[in-house]
Amino acid sequence: LIYATPGSSGRAGQLAAVLEALSELDCVVIAATAGRESISNPPRNAYLTDFLPGAQAVERASLVICNGGSPASYQALAAGVPVLGIADNMDQLLNMQGVTASGAGSLVRADQFSIPILRARVSDMLAHSGYRNAAQRVASILASYSAPQRFAASMDDFLGPT
Predict the structure, then answer these.
(1) What pTM, to 2 d.p., does this model score?
(2) Between residues 128 and 34, which one has the greater pLDDT?
């Protein structure tokens, strides 16, 4: 199962190309358009809707394809699922640099995107367990952090004693 979503800032029309790339692979795709794209004739292996509960979608997925931004990437990594980011803006590129450095994902720059490149990258990521293993290591690290406690401690450091 592959979960694909362009998020709120993915390139318009790119989800249709992603679905075309995945149409020839032995997989099922659940895709959320984020209400930004209408695809009238999706491939037979794809199920589309405007929105999906991301946390539940990533828990069931073997791979997440997104715009490479931190919201979808961290949702996937927290569940131990590798990320293929099709990044277009600087924050997405920077986020995906960290994801790829961890071994938990792969980056395709939006300006270099093509159906054959995406199809090959997805096939590689699904065939090699290293991506999944790295994503599970990242999930373990993320699970050890308490964001509220870390934020409170950061504010105490920043504001000083009260």
Answers:
(1) 0.90
(2) 128
